[in-house]
């Protein structure tokens, strides 16, 4: 698994336009659709969990690291996907979840966190100590962030009998886990190449300070901002051609690439340009659950005019989000009407936090049963699903999935497909 990641990084550094998609989601349909697509294309894939999503306390999914690995593995086994082609990644592993506590308390929690991830079988480890804890600035400087990252790396090294299988990702010039760029902030600024070089150098020095010379050789990527981002209702698209000067920042560091976060919703050419810039890892998450929401809402609208149609799925989700606004309130602003639109249709896709709730799961189950038994003509489906969805749906039906589930999986796959740009076309 580690070899796959490093092979792609080496090929990218050698000038081959290659990159790996990294799916950061715990939604079962997103994971199934992603693994099915990777299997169809004969490609490896990174599956990631984020520290606020999966941790020793359960995160918002209720899963600990070992639970997440078992969850993904069960899906892979069910479809016959070779799990050796899955790289399990831990994203934003550091004190963020507990940053309201003192630095000592938060870092103690972070040590437990990274050890659990490594013991569970995660090999791609993003060490992110960029955010301050209680009494500290919102963002700490490179020296403190790097020293804390090295401290966590030492824990990772001791948590496994095979530390050589680990790959460390450092730096994080991106939004915090689970968040998208706030609409009010100043114009997005790509990372300055010299700043990227300094950040990477600081991490190497911090590893040396702790005597982690072997671990230092396992730093394979630096997270920087290439100029891609999204907010609740806006997408920052990569400028044409990207920023070719950024690649020079990693030239002197053997075996190191860039990792791009928040690449959701970009034009297909952007992923090719990012790879040319030295980004061998492309993270995606909200765009895939956005596609899921889009598909189930389309199904809901398709059956809306049937006799005796019960409560709409969107109404169920609105109730759940209003009853527990913690996942969206600080992200959506404006009038009440605008906030309602954002709760359901935002690029930030904060609705993804609610799909696991029992009421939401029952509403989706009921909806799919209604769709399966309804007589809905092709023109109705054409109103809500594009021709490319129909093509993918037919292929999934041929694999044994119902037409209803296939439409959902196909919509997710259409959002993920541009990340596999390096697949040879027959």
Key features of this structure:
426 residues, alpha/beta, TIM Barrel, GI Alpha 1, domain 2-like, eight-stranded parallel barrel, two-stranded antiparallel sheet, 15 helices, 45% helix, globular
Word description of this protein:
- This protein is α/β, with parallel strands linked by helices and 426 residues long.
- It folds into 2 domains: 2-284, Aldolase class I (TIM Barrel), CATH 3.20.20; 289-419, GI Alpha 1, domain 2-like (Orthogonal Bundle), CATH 1.10.400.20.
- Helix content is 45%, strand content 11%.
- It has 15 helices and 10 strands.
- It has helices at residues 2-13, 28-41, 65-79, 103-120, 142-158, 193-209, 213-216, 268-276, 286-302, 313-323, 336-345, 358-373, 378-384, 387-398, 403-416, and strands at residues 20-24, 45-50, 86-93, 124-127, 167-170, 219-223, 229-230, 235-236, 257-260, 279-284.
- It has an 8-stranded parallel beta barrel, surrounded by 8 helices. Strands 7-8 form a two-stranded antiparallel sheet.
- β1, α2 (28-41) and β2 (45-50) form a beta-alpha-beta unit.
- α5 crosses α6, α9 runs antiparallel to α15 and α14 (387-398) packs across α15 (403-416).
- The chain is globular.
- The model has no long low-confidence stretch (mean pLDDT 93).
């Amino acid at each position: 698994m580690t070899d796959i990641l490093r092979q792609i990084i080496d090929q990218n550094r050698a000038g081959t336009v290659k990159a790996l998609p990294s799916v950061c989601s715990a939604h079962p349909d997103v994971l199934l659709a992603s693994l099915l697509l990777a299997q169809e294309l004969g490609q490896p894939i990174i599956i990631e969990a984020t520290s606020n999503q999966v941790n020793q306390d359960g995160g918002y999914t209720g899963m600990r690291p070992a639970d997440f690995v078992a969850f993904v593995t069960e899906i892979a086994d069910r479809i016959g996907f070779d799990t050796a082609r899955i790289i399990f990644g831990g994203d934003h592993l550091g004190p963020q979840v507990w940053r309201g506590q003192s630095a000592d308390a938060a870092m103690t929690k972070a040590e437990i966190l990274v050890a659990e991830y490594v013991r569970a079988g995660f090999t791609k480890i993003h060490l992110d100590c960029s955010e301050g804890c209680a009494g500290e600035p919102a963002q700490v400087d490179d020296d403190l962030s790097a020293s804390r990252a090295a401290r966590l790396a030492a824990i990772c090294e001791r948590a496994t009998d095979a530390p050589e299988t680990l790959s460390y990702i450092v730096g994080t010039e991106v939004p915090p886990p689970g968040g998208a760029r706030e609409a009010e902030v100043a114009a997005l600024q790509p990372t300055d190449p010299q700043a990227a070089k300094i950040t990477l150098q600081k991490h190497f020095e911090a590893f040396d300070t702790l005597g982690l010379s072997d671990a230092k050789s396992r730093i394979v990527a630096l997270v920087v901002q290439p100029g891609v981002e999204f907010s609740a209702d806006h997408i920052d698209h990569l400028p044409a051609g990207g920023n070719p000067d950024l690649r020079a920042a990693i030239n002197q560091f053997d075996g190191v690439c860039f990792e791009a976060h928040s690449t959701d919703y970009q034009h297909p050419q952007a992923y090719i340009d990012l790879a040319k810039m030295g980004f061998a890892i492309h993270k995606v998450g909200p765009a895939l659950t956005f596609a899921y929401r889009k598909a189930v809402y389309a199904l809901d609208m398709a059956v809306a005019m049937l006799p005796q149609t019960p409560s709409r799925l969107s109404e169920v989700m609105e109730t759940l989000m209003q009853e527990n606004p913690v996942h969206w309130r600080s992200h959506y602003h404006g009038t009440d009407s605008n906030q309602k639109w954002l709760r359901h249709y935002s690029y930030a896709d904060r609705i993804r936090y609610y799909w696991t709730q029992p009421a939401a799961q029952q509403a989706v189950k009921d909806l799919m049963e209604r769709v399966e038994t309804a007589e809905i003509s092709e023109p109705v489906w054409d109103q809500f699903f594009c021709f490319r969805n129909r093509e993918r749906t037919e292929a999934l039906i041929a694999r044994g999935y119902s037409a209803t589930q296939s439409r959902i999986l196909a919509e997710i796959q259409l959002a993920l497909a541009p990340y596999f740009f390096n697949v040879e076309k027959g």
